[in-house]
Amino acid sequence: MMNSISSKLVAISTQKPLWVYAILLLLTLGVGSQIPRITIDTDPENMLDADHPARVFHNQTKADFGMYDAIVVGVVDDENSQGVYNQSSLTDIFDLTESILAIDGVVDADLMSISTVDNISQAGPGTIRFEWMMPNPPSDEAAAAQIQTNIERLPLLYDTLVSQNGKAAAIYVPILDKNESYRIAEEIRATINQFDGTEQWYITGLPVAEDQFGFEMFVQMGISAPLAGLTIFILLFIFFRNIPLIIAPMVVAMATVIVTMGMLIGFGFTVHIMSSMIAIFLMPIAVVDSVHILSEFSDRYKPGEDLKAVVKEVVGHLFTPMLYTSITSSVGFFSLMLTPIPPVQIFGAFVGFGILFAFLVTIVFIPAYLSRMSDKALNNLQEALHQDGSGDGSRIARIARGLGKIATGYKGSLLVAFGVIFAVSVWGVTQIQINDNPVRWFKSDHEIRVADRVLNENFAGTYNAYLVLTDRTEQATPQSMLDNEAMPASLSDWRDETLATVQDGAPGEALQNLIFAIDDKLFDDLTTEETDYLDAVMAKVEAANSQSKTFQNPEVLAYIEKLQQTLQDSGLVGKSNALPDVVKVVNRELRSGEQKDYALPDSSNAVAQTLLQYQSSHRPNDLWHFVTPDYRAALVWLQLTSGDNQDMTAVV
Description:
Helix content: 55-70%
CATH superfamily of the largest domain: Multidrug efflux transporter AcrB transmembrane domain
Structural class: mainly alpha
Mean pLDDT: 86
Oligomer: single chain
Radius of gyration: 36 Å
Largest sheet: 3 strands, antiparallel
Low-confidence stretches: none
Strand content: 5-15%
Number of domains: 4
Number of helices: 23
CATH class of the largest domain: Mainly Alpha
CATH architecture of the largest domain: Up-down Bundle
Distance between the termini: 60 Å
Number of strands: 10
């Protein structure tokens, strides 16, 4: 059956070679026309399905707490004895911050720099003052020194915006879309290049590493794919020494790559880092079957023989083994479709398709191409392959026979060698360490790696992790507060109207709205029975509303504070920022302004008062990065000096 199929395909190919050329050309051009529609995806998050639990939780956390991916811009001044606390360095920081704020795609309100944060201080007993830390560049060194004093009093900023040694400062640049991080980083670099100070500037952060790696990798793919093709061409020339002959497998390889990538893009799939390597994989695989046919053809064909008969004999002899190897190879890649990682599924599917397509093109195109070769080209082929007159066949055949002699002559030694290699390989597998830190994808002297190393040596850490604490206990509802049995009948209509009004929104907001509704009702002309009922309900709702705000409870905040200290003592976390830090700073300034009052208040009402005061700052929404508006969930911002999997796993 296999011989029958191969015979029919060869007959069609050799009898209608121009038709084969035309169909392959039209197919390649038609499908290849989809390539300009390419959409590149460099986001490692897309290695997971959009509905994967880890990814859903990650995105929900970012939405709940208003978090954005951030670029970290760092400056180090080792020349000045005051570090970055000098007039020149602080002026450059101010100017760069203003420039960054003008870049499209930057979240202005959340950008953290010395010039965009508040200095929190005491204006008087029980009074707090919020003023910009650096509203203008310092006019002299004394003003720069005052900025140092102010920052070192604020734990939220110290070792986050400026290092403990005072030699380095950072600007945290939140961005709307991390796929724009490369462009934004380039605009920041352009501004930095205009500075003429002695400071050293660095740009790092996971979004930059991911986007820049994707950009550079696609550039490398654009270089590597042609180089792979050139390498294959040179090897084929060394083996066959006949350019007209080796054009055929190169056509097969190019057609396979173009059709496969065109179909991938045409079906609407984005080109991820994984799928960008399809061309590199397919190019050498696609020429394998062609080399088999050309090698055996060059050995069997002799001038004067029936060309088509030789081609039919060669293809008939090789058809079955080539088919089986193509199927097994493609099945191996198709098996990647069983993984839960979309880019890997796409990679496996299209490489598997490309292997089968290359086999089909080889079986049809190579015979057609050989049948069109002139007698002169065929004679030149024989002269090049058999110029030594030995009659031993082509160079490939001679190499194969030489390897065969080695294999049969040193059977025992080879088996022992392979056994040793296998044992070493098994040991090597046990030493595998999985690490998807994008910064590690660059060479040690790459600017991203250098920036990462320098800034993490100076700061508590440029890698961010977020620990979310959530109270999932059942909350009281307006319906449960307005008890029908105890309610005077005259308030029934008011109850129904009120529930319809306040039931929208989060439970905590609903209770607050109910308090407002009851308070408004108490101003009406009510009976004593109605007033007593509403007063009792008001007390219940206020108590329930206060209890529902879990993260205004001093005991809960003390637990978070203890958790932060435990993480700090572990040595795994450089620093953490959380709601207790905000509360303690404001509480200190409301009291004496001295370190002895840097502590949590004793009551929930006092905590609520500090948070209300904090919302009078220039950046009131910063509070919602640490707690949700209903105070049912809180976030601890962890700064780590390493983004390696092993270190993050140790923290967890």
